[in-house]
């Protein structure tokens, strides 16, 4: 999979505009065919602990060697709400959490959050662990796959979350649907969703 680069919210506001995205092409994408524009939601919460939340996938395949823009926005918790609100003895809230997820998970708490697609900026943990972390810090559990292999699409070096928790990635299609997941051995205690748009930038060359 070819990943070009990750950009922050400032650039997104210019390139992703309603004038560019035709409303008729959104949401109700039929299965099959070549993806031109789709929206997806990746919920960090899953009842079953199978190693990851997701994957979710586009209904249509990405055209081989065509370029696509993937925009991801949202904030998450990888821990139960109770650990943030009333940390047990010997634990603290490390970093600067935000009070609620941008996009709550249906039926789950809308409590404090400390993760987005690129960074970990808060979590409940032990003081000694907190001192070692130096938050915010890069976080690579958000992964995508254009083919068979999942990988984090960004540089993996970002140390400050974007203010809108929005990132965009330029990728190249490989003739298969795009898949997205959040790696976690225990997704059943997570909450918060990522909203994703996938838009074709160019045809195959
Ligand atoms: Ca978890």
Describe it.
- With 205 residues, this protein is mostly beta strands.
- The protein has a domain at 37-141 and 156-173 and 184-192.
- It is built from 3 helices and 12 strands; from the N terminus they run βαβββαβββαβββββ.
- It has helices at residues 9-15, 81-85, 127-133, and strands at 3-8, 37-43, 52-57, 67-73, 92-95, 119-120, 122-125, 137-138, 142-145, 166-172, 179-183, 193-202.
- It has a 5-stranded antiparallel β-sheet. A 3-stranded antiparallel β-sheet has the order 3-11-9, with no helix packed on it. The protein has a two-stranded antiparallel ribbon with strand order 5-7.
- The protein is elongated, with a radius of gyration of 17 Å.
- The two termini are 16 Å apart.
- Bound molecules: calcium ion.
- Residues 78, 184, 186-187, 189-190 line the site of calcium ion.
- Calcium ion binds next to loops.
Proportion in helices: under 10%
Q: What is bound: which ligands?
A: calcium ion
What low-confidence regions span 5 or more consecutive residues with pLDDT below 50? 1-28
Mean pLDDT across residues? 88
Task: Briefly characterize the structure.
By secondary structure, the protein is mainly β.
Lay out the secondary structure.
Blueprint: E1 3-8, H1 9-15, E2 37-43, E3 52-57, E4 67-73, H2 81-85, E5 92-95, E6 119-120, E7 122-125, H3 127-133, E8 137-138, E9 142-145, E10 166-172, E11 179-183, E12 193-202
Antiparallel strand pairs: 1-10, 2-12, 3-11, 4-10, 4-12, 5-7, 6-8, 9-11
Bound molecules: calcium ion.
């Amino acid at each position: 999979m070819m990943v070009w680069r990750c950009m922050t919210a400032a650039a997104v506001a210019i390139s992703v505009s309603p004038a560019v995205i035709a409303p008729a092409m959104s949401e109700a994408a039929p299965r099959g065919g070549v993806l031109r524009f789709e929206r997806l939601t990746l919920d960090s919460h899953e009842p079953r602990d199978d190693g990851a939340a997701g994957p979710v996938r586009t209904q249509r395949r990405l055209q081989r060697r065509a370029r696509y823009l993937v925009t991801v926005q949202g904030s998450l918790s990888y821990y139960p709400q109770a650990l943030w609100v009333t940390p047990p003895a010997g634990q603290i809230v490390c970093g600067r959490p935000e009070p609620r997820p941008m996009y709550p998970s249906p039926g789950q708490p809308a409590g404090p959050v400390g993760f987005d697609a690129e960074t970990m900026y808060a979590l409940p943990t032990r003081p000694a662990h907190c001192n070692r972390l130096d938050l915010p810090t890069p976080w690579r559990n958000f992964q995508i796959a254009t083919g068979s292999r999942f990988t984090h699409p960004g540089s993996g070096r970002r140390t400050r979350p974007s203010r809108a928790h929005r990132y965009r990635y330029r990728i190249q299609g490989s003739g298969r649907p795009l898949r997205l997941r959040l790696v976690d051995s225990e997704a059943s205690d997570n909450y918060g969703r990522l909203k994703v748009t996938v838009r074709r930038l160019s045809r195959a060359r």
